[in-house]
Specification:
2 copies of one chain form a homodimer. The first copy, chain A, has about 575 residues and is mainly alpha-helical. Helix content of chain A is about 65%, strand content about 5%. Chain A is built from 23 helices and 6 strands. In chain A, strands 1, 2, 3, 4, 5 and 6 form a 6-stranded mixed β-sheet that branches. In chain A, strand 2 and strand 3 form a beta hairpin. In chain A, helix 8 packs antiparallel against helix 10 and helix 12 crosses helix 13. In chain A, about 60% of the residues are buried. The C terminus of chain A is likely disordered. Chains A and B meet through helix 1, helix 5, helix 11, helix 12 and helix 14 of A and helix 1, helix 5, helix 11, helix 12 and helix 14 of B.
C-alpha cells in the first residue's frame, strides 16, 4: 500500500491538530457570544488559510497546509469522510414521525416557506444573473435552479439550537418551526441532489440525467420507507446480539458509509446517502440516546470542526469578497424566506407575531447552506465570489436568528446562575454555624464588588428568612432578597462541612448555601435562579461533585456535568 | 486543494464501509467465542486482502482496495490517524498512580518479566538469527534488539479484559498483573522508540541517533512529569469554561495529534506521542468517565477495526506463512514470558499457583505486538515472513490467556442469565394470577426442550417456594430449585401485567418472574444467577425496559444496556 513519508505524516498530524484546536477555540468563543459554533469554525479556516496566515507568511502556510501532494489528498479524503458523517448526524436529527404529526400548519409553512424563496431566487437568477454572481459560461438553467435552492433551504440544527436556548423547543411555535424545517431540509436536499445529477457523469446527455434523477428518487424513497422499516426491525437485533454500545455504533457508521458510496455511485454526492441513512436510522425509537450521543459528540467535536475549518483552506475569503454581492444575496435570501414562511404561517392560522417569529426562525441557513455552496463550488456551478457571499449570508442569517426571535417574541434567554457568580463570591468554607452568621458572611462576599450595601442586604435577607425559611432539602438552602438599586442579580455560594440549619422540610442541615440577591424591579430573576438551583441539584451526582468543589472553577465544572441532551451537543455545531 | 475524483470517493467509502463492517462482524463473532475482538478484526483484513479475496478475484480486490494511487494514500493516512488515536486510548488506560501504589511485587514482576524474555530473545536472535526469521542484509544489532523487545512486551488491554471476564480485575492478583503490565507497556514502548530512533533520519550517524534518543527520553520524561501535572491542572478549567462534553474531547484529541506530530518530528513514530499524551491525560482524576467513554467507543468501534483490518490488506498471510518460524516464535515467546513473570512473581513472594497465573496473564501480546510488528515492517527491520509469525504469536497468546488463567486458578467465567434463556422459555404474558400457576407455566416453558420433567420441576420449585418466598422486591420474583440430572442451568422468564404475589419484602406483586433451575451438583450456578439478577435490576431504567419487552430479543437488548464501564468497551478491542 502506498504510504506517507515521515515528513508527510508529521505535517498531516500538525495540520489536523492546528485545524481542530483553532476551530474549537474559536467555536467556543462564538458560543460564549451566543453565536453558533460554525461561525468560529469557519473563521478558524479563514485565519489558517490563504486569507490571513497565507497572506502573512505564504511559505509557512504552504508548508503546513499544502494545497497539492499527498498531505492535501489525505486531508481532502478526511474532510469528505467528515462531511459524510456530519450529514449522518444531521439526518439523525430529522424526526420525520414528529414532523408528520404536526399536521397542516407545519406543512403549509414548509411548502410556502420553500416555494416563495425558490420562486424569488429563480426569478432573480434568471432575469438578473450578473447581480446574483453568475460566472461567465455558466448554464443559466442549472445556475438558476441552484440559486433558487440555495435560497430556500433552512438549517435544522441551528434552528433547533436557537429554540432550545430560548426554551421554545417544546412549545407549539417551536414544534411548527422545527417540523417545517425538517420537511424543508429533506425536500431541499432532494432538489439539490437532482440538480447535481444534471451536472453528473452524464451531463449533457438527457437520458443519463434522467437515469440519475430516477435513481436518486428511488434511493430516497426506498430509504424512507423500506429502509426505515428494516432498520427499525434490525436495531433491536443488533443491540441484543452485539456488544454494547459498539455494535450499534459500527452498524450505523458502516451503513452511512455504504449509503454514501451508493449516492456517490449514482452520480450525486456522498452526503445524500449518509443523510438519508441518518434519517432512516434516527427515526427509530430503538436507537438509544447513548449511541446517538457518542456519534454526535465525536462528529460535532472532531469531524465537523475539521470540515468547516478546512473550507477556509480552499478559498481566499479576502480576494473573493464582493460587498455588493454579499449584500444583494443577503437581502434576497432574507426577503424570500421571511415572506414565504410568514405567509405560510399566516395561511396556517398563526398570529402575526408568531408568523414573524416563524420567518426569522426559518431564516437561519447555518452549516447546510455552506455545505450546499461547497458542493456547488466543487461541481463548478458557482465560483469563489458567490461561494463567499453564500457563506457570509449563512453566517449572518444564523447569527440573526436568536436575537430576532427574542425581539419579535419579547423573550429573554433564561439566566444561568453561572452568569452571576464570581470568584470573590465563592466561599468554600463558611465559618458561621447559624443561618444568621452564614447570611452575614455571604452578603459580605456578595457585596464585596461594591454592587450593594452589605449591611442593608443582610437585613433584607434576614427579614425574608424570618418570614419563611429557605432550606429546600438535600442539604441546600437559598436565602434571598430583592434589593432596590441593584443593577443585576448577584449570587454568592458558601459551603459548610458541619451544616447549617435552615429549617429544611427534610430536616437536613444545609451544606450548600446560595445567597440570591435580585433587583426589586426584575420580576422573573429570583424565580429563574431558584428553579435552576432546584433543577440542577435533583441530580445527586452533581450535588456531590459541587459539594466537593474547593474553587469556583471546580464548582462551575460540577454544574456543567449536565445530562448531555439538555440543549445538547447534537444541535451545537451547525 | 487537490481532491479525489467522484470514482475515488466512491471507492474510498465502499472500502471503508467493507473494512468496518467485516471487521466488526468477525470481531463480534470472536467475542462470542470468548476471544479478543482483534482476532476477528485481523481475520477480516486477511479475508478482504490479497490472502483470500485477492487470491479468488484479484481484479475485484484491486479495484476495491487499490494498493497505490490516491485512494491507497487516503486509506494510509486514515489508518495512521486511527492507530494514533488507538494509542491515545491505550495510554489513557495506563493508570500510573495505581501501578505505583502496588509496590514492589508488581515492580519485580514487571522488571524480571521483561528482562528474562528480553535476554532470551536477544540471545536467540544474536546466536541463531536465521531460525528467528531474520532477512538478508538486516543489521544484526538492531534486529536482535527489536526481536528482544517484541518478545518482552505485554498487551495491557487484552490482559485487563481477560481479568475482568474472570472477575479478577480488582483482586490482589489482578492488580499485580495489571500494574506490572502497565510498567511493562511503558518501558517496552520506550525501548522500541529508541530502537526506531536508531533507524530514523540519522541512521548510521551516531551523533544524530544520540540526539533522537535524548529527545525521545526528554519528551517522555516531560510528558510524564510536567505534562501530567499541567494537564491535571488544566482539565478542570477546560471543563468549566467550554461546552460539555465537547471541550474536553477536542482538547484531548488535539493534544494527541500534537503529541503525535512531536514524536514523528523527533524521528520515531507518531504513536508514541499519542500514547504518552494518553498516559498523562488518563491519569488525571479530573478526566470524566463520559469523556473517556466517548473517545473510547469511537476509537474501539470505528478507528481500531479499520486499522487492524487494514493490516491484512498490506500483507499476504498465505504467501508469507512459515509454519516452522511461527512455531519457533511462539515457543520462544511463551517460554520467555512465562519464565520471566513466574520468576518475578515468585521473587515477589507469590505462591506457585499465583506465579503461574501471573505468567499466563502477562503472556498475552494482543494488539500491541501487532502494532510493534507493523512499525518494524514499515521501518524495514523485519520482513513479511516474521511479521506474519509475530501477528499469529500475538493472536495465539491472547487467545490462550483466558483459558490458561482459568485452568491454573480453577476459575470459571461467571455465567450470564442470557446464556440460559431461549425464545421458548420466554413467556411475555403469564396467564396465572397466583404463584403456583405462574410456576406451572414457567416450568412447562423451561422443560419444553426436553431437558427436564416439567411436573417434577414444578413440584421441586413449589416445595422450595413454600419454605421461603422468592419475591425480592421491585416487582421481581425468582422461584427456583436444584434438580438432579440437569445438564446445565435453565432460566425461564415470565411477565405479568397484573402482578403476582410472591410475598416480597416491599409488598410489591411481581411483574417479572424468573424461574431458575440448576443442576443439584453445581454449587455456584444458582447463586451466580441470582446475584446477577439482583445486580442487573438495581438499575430502574433497565428494569422498566425489560418489563416492556415483548420478545426475547427485546428482553436481551434491555439487559444489555449496562452502564458501559462494566467490563467496558475500553478493554474490548485489543
Amino acid at each position: 500500500m502506498e504510504s506517507l513519508s515521515h515528513h508527510d505524516v508529521a505535517v498531516m498530524l500538525v495540520s489536523l491538530g492546528a485545524l481542530l484546536a483553532v476551530a474549537r477555540v474559536l467555536g467556543e468563543i462564538a458560543q460564549w457570544l451566543h453565536q453558533p459554533a460554525v461561525v468560529g469554525e469557519i473563521l478558524a479556516g479563514i485565519l489558517l488559510g490563504p486569507t490571513v496566515f497565507g497572506a502573512l507568511a505564504p511559505e509557512w502556510q504552504g508548508a503546513l497546509f499544502p494545497s497539492s501532494g499527498p498531505v492535501a489528498l489525505v486531508l481532502g479524503g478526511l474532510t469528505t469522510l467528515a462531511i459524510t458523517l456530519f450529514l449522518l448526524v444531521a439526518g439523525m436529527e430529522v424526526d420525520l414521525s414528529t414532523a408528520w404529526k404536526q399536521g397542516t400548519t407545519a406543512l403549509k409553512v414548509a411548502v410556502v416557506g420553500m416555494a416563495v424563496p425558490f420562486a424569488i431566487g429563480f426569478a432573480a437568477a434568471w432575469t438578473v444573473p450578473r447581480a446574483m454572481g453568475v460566472h461567465a459560461g455558466a448554464d443559466p438553467l442549472i445556475f438558476s435552479l441552484f440559486f433558487a435552492t440555495a435560497l430556500s433551504i433552512s438549517a435544522l440544527p441551528v434552528i433547533a439550537k436557537t429554540l432550545m436556548d430560548l426554551n421554545l423547543y417544546r412549545s407549539d411555535l417551536g414544534m411548527v418551526i422545527v417540523s417545517a424545517a425538517v420537511i424543508n431540509d429533506l425536500v431541499g436536499w432532494l432538489v439539490f441532489a437532482i440538480i447535481l445529477g444534471m451536472l453528473g457523469p452524464g451531463a449533457g446527455q438527457e437520458a443519463r440525467i434522467a437515469v440519475t434523477i430516477v435513481l436518486t428518487l428511488a434511493f430516497a424513497a426506498t430509504m424512507l420507507t423500506a429502509g426505515r422499516w428494516l432498520l427499525h426491525r434490525a436495531l433491536p437485533y443488533v443491540q441484543a446480539h452485539t456488544r454494547w454500545p459498539g455494535g450499534v455504533l459500527s452498524f450505523a457508521l458502516a451503513l452511512a458509509l455504504f449509503g454514501a458510496a451508493c449516492t456517490e455511485w449514482i452520480g450525486i454526492h456522498a452526503i445524500f446517502g449518509a443523510f438519508l441513512v441518518g434519517v432512516a436510522i434516527g427515526d427509530s425509537s430503538h436507537l438509544r440516546e447513548q449511541t446517538r450521543m457518542t456519534i454526535d459528540s465525536f462528529v460535532s467535536f472532531f469531524f465537523a470542526p475539521l470540515f468547516f475549518a478546512s473550507i477556509g483552506l480552499r478559498v481566499d475569503f479576502a480576494a473573493s469578497f464582493d460587498a455588493t454581492l454579499v449584500l444583494t444575496i443577503l437581502v434576497v435570501a432574507c426577503a424570500g424566506k421571511l415572506l414565504g414562511c410568514g405567509l405560510g404561517a399566516a395561511w396556517g392560522g398563526m398570529s402575526r407575531r408568531d408568523a414573524w417569529a416563524v420567518g426569522f426562525g426559518m431564516n437561519a441557513r447555518g452549516a447546510m447552506e455552506i455545505i450546499l455552496g461547497l458542493l456547488a463550488l466543487e461541481a463548478g456551478m458557482i465560483r469563489e465570489r458567490l461561494f463567499v457571499a453564500l457563506v457570509l449570508m449563512a453566517l449572518v442569517t444564523s447569527m440573526l436568528g436568536g436575537p430576532m426571535l427574542q425581539f419579535v417574541l419579547g423573550r429573554r434567554k433564561p439566566r444561568r446562575i453561572g452568569d452571576f457568580l464570581a470568584a470573590r463570591r465563592f466561599v468554600p468554607r463558611l465559618e458561621g454555624t447559624t443561618g444568621r452568621e452564614a447570611i452575614r458572611e455571604l452578603t459580605t462576599a456578595a457585596c464585596s464588588g461594591g454592587h450593594c450595601d452589605a449591611a442593608a442586604a443582610e437585613e433584607a435577607v434576614w427579614a425574608r428568612e424570618q418570614t419563611m425559611h429557605t432550606g429546600i432539602g438535600d442539604g441546600i438552602a437559598v436565602p434571598r432578597a430583592r434589593l432596590a438599586g441593584l443593577g443585576a442579580p448577584l449570587v454568592a455560594v458558601g459551603m459548610s462541612e458541619a451544616g447549617i440549619d435552615f429549617d429544611a422540610p427534610d430536616g437536613e442541615p444545609a451544606h450548600l448555601v446560595f445567597l440570591v440577591l435580585t433587583p426589586v424591579e426584575d420580576d422573573g430573576a429570583q424565580l429563574e435562579i431558584l428553579s435552576e438551583i432546584a433543577r440542577l441539584f435533583r441530580d445527586r451526582a452533581r450535588l456531590e461533585r459541587a459539594r466537593r468543589a474547593r474553587t469556583l472553577t471546580e464548582f462551575l465544572a460540577a454544574l456543567k456535568s449536565e445530562p448531555p441532551r439538555a440543549g445538547g451537543p447534537e444541535a451545537e455545531t451547525a
